[in-house]
Amino acid sequence: MGKIKAMTQEWMDAYKAAIEADPEYKEIAKNWEGSVALIVNPDPDKGVPEPVYLFMDYWHGDVGEFVVCDKAKAESAKFVMTGDYARWKQVALKELDSTKALLQGKLKMKGDLPYVVRNIKVVNKVIDILGRVDTLWPDEA
Amino acid sequence: MPNGYAGAILLVDLTNRTTDELKVDETLLKDFIGGSSLAARLLLDRFKLDADPLSGDNPLMIMTGPMVASGFPGTSRFSICARAPQTGIWGESACGGTFGPELKRAGYDGIIVTGVSSSPVYLSVVDGKAGIHDAKHLWGKDIYETTDELKAKDGGLKVLAIGQAGENLVKIAAIGNDKGHFSGRTGLGAVMGSKRLKAIVARGKGRPAKADEERFKEVMKKALAEVKDSALAEGLHLMGSDANMELGMIKGDVPIKNWTVGEAFDLASNLSGPTMREKYLTKEHACANCPVACKRVVKVADGPYRTEEGPGPEYETCATFGTMLMNDDLAAVIKANELCNRYGMDTISCGSAIALAMELYEKGIVTPSDTGGLELTWGNMDAVMPLIKNIAFREGFGDILAEGTLGAARRIGRGAEDMVAHVKGLEAPMHDPRGFHGMGLAYMMSNRGACHLQHAVLATEQGMASWPELFDMEDDYVGTTSEGKAMLVFNSENYGILCNSLSICHYVVYILRPETVLEAFNAVTGFGLGKDDLLKAGMRDWTLKRGINNLLGISRKDDVLPKRILTALSEGAAAGSVPDMDLLLKEYYALRGLDERGFPKPEKLDELGLKELKRRLYQ
After folding, report:
1. CB within 8 Å of B467: residues ≥ 6 apart
2. pLDDT digit string (tens) for B8-35?
3. Is A109 on the interface with B (CB under 8 A)?
4. Which value does ipTM take for this structure?
């Protein structure tokens, strides 16, 4: 199977499958409740002409809806994280620690920050799994 | 008088019960700015450096900076300085709260106290008038009682007080401001106690002038917008400094079981900022002029560790009385914090001393016959509470721990010294250099001993802040490597030191852009200093204090990490990792212009204009 274009529905499906296949995820995320949206700011020079909205539903170790969506749906998520495409790519490739990115203002988050801190292992786990999806990034296509 | 300054330092001689004023030359202010920097310069110029820390000749210096009382975010701070009872070298401890701005409004940039009173006294500084008053009725009371009693006369007074630990010359004694803010480190509460000075109260209506009010208003808007936009500020507001507990545990930052265990996530979870918020927080609290409000007000409603509503523990306290003792009961940490606050003891030092005692107890080096029957098993907080009191009152086994962790280990012997994580006699704070090698170098080279607040390494190495455009630094650092860390520490010290000169909170400095801080400083003082001038002031500060320490006997041999920190952990994010001391020191010594003895080279002293220090070091 070849690389999957980032931020497409196929990519979201592959990400969801990777999480479901992870042997540790279910236990680590057993207390997590709530959806997460990632908003990718446009960067035409890097092949992202429009903002991209991604919606992911996590619930007590299970994963539900994983979709590319519109702005309204993204903003309805319990946690909404926004950042430039280059930052998201760095996070996915584990070149940028998501916590550092948040603290330094490279990513922005709307939602219950203490809840995220409390569940930091879940956050780190899903980022770790994202790195395993064989991805074709827009600026590399 | 120079803009931003009250224009005078109050001199108090308790032996003769006299007061005087010192006017500081503007050139000196431009070079040393304020806070502990100015205190170090005045110590060198005017006082006996090698005075016994608990003698009348050792000046107790309480200093603000030019930003204090300006209204700028985070400028509530003040530094207390003296030769330290715990370490015998340069001692300083910064504090937030209310006292600093009030002292400025009362007409003074600082207070220098010398001498020893024949009986307990307290000092008042109200609208430019100083008075020395009988305090026999306060002696023996704890900090909360003392503060309440002094405020009962005048609720507007801001109080700085010692508890029983300071009175009993405990070497880890702290000084408390309005119950919830502490100058904890290096034992300066004992210096105050040795002078029989129970408290200082301040109240004033003055407003130090600003050089450019309009420019200041503009930079205030900018600063407040930066705070509002900051996730770090949001996290600190919601979870306090203990927001770091779980994140730090994952990254290998949190010491566990007296620095012998590498990871215990569930333990951290029970002690964390989110847990405090859920279970015990009654409200957030702010130091004067702070929009972040990271301080906690907590209450343990019931159970064996019940407390009244009062100041809550910081991250450092949650680690020293939590993970370090293998205690997962946050209520017990809150109670221990309250006891330390009341008696007036540094929670890092006190918790660390008890962690050592527990390890010695486990190894059979200390037994119930030594401890007066207290069973110092890991996590036994029922034994910790009376032990805290014993330390404050120097009773039984507590008298040994009252010497500080290293002092206690030396008295106990039998290998105890190898179990102490310290540099130059000061216990390491709760950030593990095995997870962050730059912090190891910072501990080795901080002028008051192992310290996380004489620099901004915590922020830059762990990624709370990133200032690559300002300094010769990387955008991101890996904790468990020593390469490139000397430059990181050098720059983070030069900037972080300024926090203590300007008397501005480290957290606020991490949140704000450096150019915003610089612009505010110039709007207040009109000094027109650039970034390089300020960083040079940071270098001057570090070198001056280093030279003072050299004169007090410090040299290359003292710039070491202890065996406990150089022993690798077997689990967690820092497993197998220890700082490369030789590499770190080699690079750092070159950057600081230190010779092979660890003394500043003459040309470095010339570059920084430290003529008197050069004369003293090389005459």
Report:
1. B460, B473, B495, B514
2. 999 999 999 999 999 999 999 999 999 9
3. yes
4. 0.92
